Amino acid sequence: MFSYYLQLGLRSLRRNPMLTALMVMAIGFGVAASMTTYSVFRATSRDPIPQKSDVLYNVQIDNWGPENTQNGEPPPALSYKDATALLRAHKAKRQTVTYPIGVSAIPDDPSRLPIRQGAYATGADFFPMFDVPFLQGRAWSLEDDDRHADVAVISKSLNDKLFNGGQSVGKQINLDGHLFRITGVIKDWAPQPLFFDVPNTQGFDDGASVYVPFNRAVDLKLPNNGNNNCVKDPGEGWENYLRSECIWLSLWAELPSKAEAQTYREYLTGYAAEMQRSGRFSWAPNVKLRDVMEWLSVQKVVPRESQVSLLVSLGFLIICLVNTVGLLLAKFLRRAPEIGVRRALGASRRDIYTQFLIEAGTIGIAGGVLGLLLTGLGVLGVGLVFPEEIARLATLDPTLMALTLVVAISASVIAAFYPTWRAAQVQPAWQLKSN
After folding, report:
1. Which residue ranges run through the membrane (predicted)?
2. How many independent structural domains does the chain possess?
């Protein structure tokens, strides 16, 4: 019977091509608008490291006091004093501190110009903590951190530029006149959102091509290439900057269990209490320890415009469905004589429901195909509405294509329920008498 009803539905669609075209367009445009904005929302709200997001924690300590913060929220980064104290205590399985630096890679060939690169100063634990994928070699060791070694990890794209994609582990790279030994080459890696450096990137960035040890970067006085936030002037000189309450460092800890996370949170509270007793803080301890998704939520990484546009597009889809309901109602009730004859010949209301819902499903398939084409165009054009670093994240992948078809078919079937119910109420006797 399904095949028979499908044939009836296709025949009915060909009988009223203009009405059919209007319904297909309503479904197609409504679904395309919602799926295009959903592609952006999905890209900006996804879990950037799903295999470990619940064991990676961002650390916050209030070193500014309630008069310099809002709603009791600690500053989004740490001072050098706090970050290094926590690193030395080493209360987590792994922990790392990062800050962005801007360096130029100087090629060995003097005829070539220096290459300006995004870079991070960080620790050896950064790479296993965040599952950074290596193509050559490995990360530097914890001993290299302690020795303040001149070592570096570079990206594939930089390796291609400097070493033509060849083996570069063990070779040296010149960064702003300082030589670093390359220990590994990673894929061009930049999880989106860029969760480990939200204060400087707002969550979206191309990532870095160079990573060097944090301790060595401090020795070389490599300035922070991100945000420098201070409640008062730190004074002149690098040493004064390190001793100040300026916040510029992100610290992450890997804590495999909830019990370890609670223990670490208690340690942070105790550390802040000690700072209060020493006279450095004049306020009660205010610390936060949040996993990846909690951190992204608190920092409002998902752009507000993507949320608003998604709601608007869903509203547009509802309007399209309301129009489709009206068109289907007109289409189905025009066939009242046909329905009356079928009922008189023994068709049940259930048969009428099945026939017309299958017909609506065929409209949904056609609308879904049109929606796919329009969604593809919409994804290509999201750069007209959203910033480039966000627009490039929106893609029409197999998952979105399947979802578009499912939404189109489901929406058309849902829209057909009321018109089908009205059609099923047709009284056979009345139709036979009047016709």
Report:
1. 21-41, 310-333, 353-386, 398-418
2. 2
pLDDT over 90 (residue 70):
no
In a domain, 277, yes or no: no
Containing structural domain, residue 141: 63-254
Same domain, 115 and 215: yes
In a domain, 273, yes or no: no
Regarding whether 74 and 12 lie in a shared domain, the answer is no
What mean pLDDT comes out for the span 3-10?
A: 68
Domain boundary among 254, 289, 315: 254
* Residues 26 and 115 placed together within one structural domain of the fold: no
pTM metric for this prediction: 0.82
With helix as H, strand as E and coil as C, how does the chain read?
Answer: CHHHHHHHHHHHHHHCHHHHHHHHHHHHHHHHHHHHHHHHHHHHHCCCCCCCCCCEEEEEECCCCHHHCECCECCCCECHHHHHHHHHHCCCCEEEEEEEEEEEEECCCCCCCCEEEEEEEECCCHHHHCCCCEEEECCCCHHHHHCCCCEEEEEHHHHHHHHCCCCCCCCEEEECCEEEEEEEEECCCCCCCCHHHHHHHCCCCCCCCEEEEHHHHHHCCCCCCCCCECCCCCCCCHHHHHHCCCECEEEEEECCCHHHHHHHHHHHHHHHHHHHHCCCCCCCCCEEEEEHHHHHHHCCCCCHHHHHHHHHHHHHHHHHHHHHHHHHHHHHHCCHHHHHHHHHCCCCHHHHHHHHHHHHHHHHHHHHHHHHHHHHHHHHCHHHCCCHHHHCCCCCCHHHHHHHHHHHHHHHHHHHHHHHHHHHCCCHHHHHHHC
Q: Which of 148-162, 352-366, 417-431 comes out lowest in average pLDDT?
A: 417-431
- Do 40 and 103 lie in a common domain? no
pLDDT band at 47 (very low <50, low <70, confident <90, very high): very high
Distances (CA, A) of 244 to 33, 127, 207, 237, 276: 50, 29, 28, 11, 16
Of the three residues 238, 254, 270, the one that is the final residue of a domain is 254
What is the Rg, in whole angstroms, of the alpha carbon atoms belonging to the chain? 31
Question: 89 in a domain, yes or no?
Answer: yes
Give the closest residue to 217 by CA, choosing from 137, 132, 139, 152.
152
User: Is residue 84 one of the residues assigned to a domain?
Assistant: yes
Identity of the amino acid at 190: A
Same domain, 384 and 331: yes
